């Protein structure tokens, strides 16, 4: 049954007829309805926004090192895989993270007949589809306490994670921290983690940052040059304090980042040098002793709390915080548009139809002022009920039907508070014609973030 209504005189009924013809022609020509690839336009290089990082207190980082030294001393002088000092180190780090609100997971594996452990700590929140991971190996060699290799990286990553908690950071990306076991046996723990991660979870890791040997006593300032974007965030920080850096070359792939790089995950990191000798040119840049190893106690019993350069460890801790804050809180530039220009017929007094726009490559949620540009040609727009459907299906009413709104067409831009919705995913415009006689089609529609 059709409801009665009065038809108002039309200003330009020929134009309406022509429009209807255009729609029919487009549909007859087989224009795909909702499957066209939406165009993406917007400001070219607007530059992502992100928050400034706090200073990481070096005293706190060194307090963790003192704890790791005590653990080694109490457990036969080392914190090596399969030894009691390793498990005690894991327990120490885990307790600090648990108290700070992290969700921690202990992952067990077996290597050389002994049980090994990885500790994974997730900071609740952020986009679960974009994971920024940071890690350090927590095991030492059996020859010594492993304070520079790699208590230094472990402590810097721990204190940065605790700073995330102190700031109650609400990052756009999901932040995950990890402490690896059995690195010294050939990156066993990190390989185990990566190999046991389902492919879908692997694909969510946007980057992995590694710290291994972050406070060598005769330090160099090396930045992993594996991924240009991750390298840049560290180099920018060092440029800001006027300290030159060099690309890390002392055995590429000799730490846990290799496990991630091997499966195609972008990696970055910091390193202050191991057994290699510092050159005169490097002393000119960084000070220290030329002709001497960056770490003369590398893999030996003298790798104690005395084997740390505080300035290097302080800088690398702050640089890491800068990288996590920058990469973890960056939001996509505003103003980008996504459009679907494929026509979709709206059946007269019939079922709802939809047209989709798939958004990808953004971070975080949609804005509170998401603009929905709608261009629907119709001979009596009062017939139309229009909703925006978020990727999770939540409907936002853009327009209700009206028995008295006899004008043509809906050509309008609506503002939707979509701040509770993830930006990435398939958005749909849902249009239903709820009254007989007049008809039309979705000509195009557009989302502007
Ligand atoms: N733990 C590492 C190892 O013994 C130390 C190391 C050497 C390293 N070269 C490196 C760490 C380069 C990072 C990058 O192999
Ligand atoms: Zn190491
Ligand atoms: Ca109608």
Explain the overall architecture:
This protein folds into 2 domains: 48-329, Zn peptidases (Aminopeptidase), CATH 3.40.630; 336-448, Jelly Rolls (Sandwich), CATH 2.60.120. Helices cover 28% and strands 26% of the residues. It is built from 10 helices and 18 strands. It has helices at residues 13-28, 58-74, 84-99, 147-166, 188-195, 199-202, 228-240, 257-261, 280-286, 310-329, and strands at residues 39-41, 103-111, 114-123, 127-137, 173-180, 205-211, 222-223, 246-247, 267-271, 337-340, 344-346, 353-359, 370-378, 384-389, 395-399, 410-416, 425-433, 440-448. The strands form 3 sheets. Strands 2-3-5-4-6-9-7-8 form an 8-stranded mixed sheet, sandwiched between helices. Helix 2 crosses helix 4 (147-166), helix 4 (147-166) packs across helix 10 (310-329) and helix 7 packs across helix 10 (310-329). The chain starts with 12 loop residues before the first helix and ends with a strand. Zinc ion (ZN) binds at residues 137, 149-150, 183, 212-213, 255.
């Amino acid at each position: 049954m059709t409801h009665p209504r009065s038809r108002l005189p039309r200003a330009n009924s020929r134009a309406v007829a022509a429009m209807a013809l255009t729609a029919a022609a487009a549909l007859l020509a087989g224009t795909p309805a909702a499957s066209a690839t939406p165009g993406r336009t917007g400001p070219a290089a607007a530059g992502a926004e992100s928050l400034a990082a706090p200073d990481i207190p070096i005293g706190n980082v060194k307090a963790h090192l003192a704890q790791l030294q005590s653990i080694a001393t109490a457990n036969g002088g080392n914190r090596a895989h399969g030894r009691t000092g390793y498990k005690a180190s894991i327990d120490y780090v885990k307790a600090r993270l648990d108290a700070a609100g992290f969700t921690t997971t202990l992952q067990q594996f077996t290597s050389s007949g002994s049980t090994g452990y990885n500790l994974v700590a997730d900071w609740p929140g952020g986009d679960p589809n974009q994971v920024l991971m940071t890690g350090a190996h927590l095991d030492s060699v059996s020859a010594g306490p492993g304070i520079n290799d790699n208590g230094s990286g472990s402590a810097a990553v721990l204190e940065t994670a605790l700073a995330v908690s102190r700031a109650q950071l609400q990052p756009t990306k999901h932040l995950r921290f990890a402490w690896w076991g059995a690195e010294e046996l050939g990156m066993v723990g990190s390989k185990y983690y990566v190999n046991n991660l389902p492919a879908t979870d692997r694909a969510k890791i946007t980057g992995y940052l590694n710290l291994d040997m972050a406070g060598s006593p005769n330090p160099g300032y090396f930045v992993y040059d594996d991924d240009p974007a991750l390298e840049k965030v560290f180099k920018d920080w060092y440029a800001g304090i006027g300290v030159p850096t060099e690309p890390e070359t002392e055995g590429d792939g000799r730490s846990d980042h290799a496990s991630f790089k091997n499966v195609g995950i972008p990696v970055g990191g910091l390193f202050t040098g191991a057994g290699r000798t510092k050159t005169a040119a490097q002393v000119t840049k960084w000070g220290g002793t030329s002709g001497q190893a960056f770490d003369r106690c590398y893999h030996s019993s003298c790798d104690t709390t005395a084997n740390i350069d505080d300035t290097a460890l302080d800088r690398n801790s702050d640089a890491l915080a800068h990288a996590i804050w920058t990469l973890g809180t960056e939001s996509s530039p505003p103003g980008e548009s996504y459009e679907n220009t494929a026509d979709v017929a709206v059946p007269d007094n019939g079922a709802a139809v939809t047209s989709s726009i798939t958004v990808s490559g953004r971070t975080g949620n949609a804005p509170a002022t998401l603009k929905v540009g709608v261009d629907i040609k119709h001979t009596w727009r009062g017939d139309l009920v229009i909703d925006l459907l978020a990727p999770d299906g939540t409907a936002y009413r853009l327009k209700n039907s009206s028995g008295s709104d006899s004008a043509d067409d809906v050509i309008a831009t609506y503002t939707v508070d979509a701040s509770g919705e993830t930006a990435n995913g398939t958005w749909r415009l849902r249009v239903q014609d709820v009254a007989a006689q007049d008809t039309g089609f979705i000509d195009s529609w557009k989302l502007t973030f």
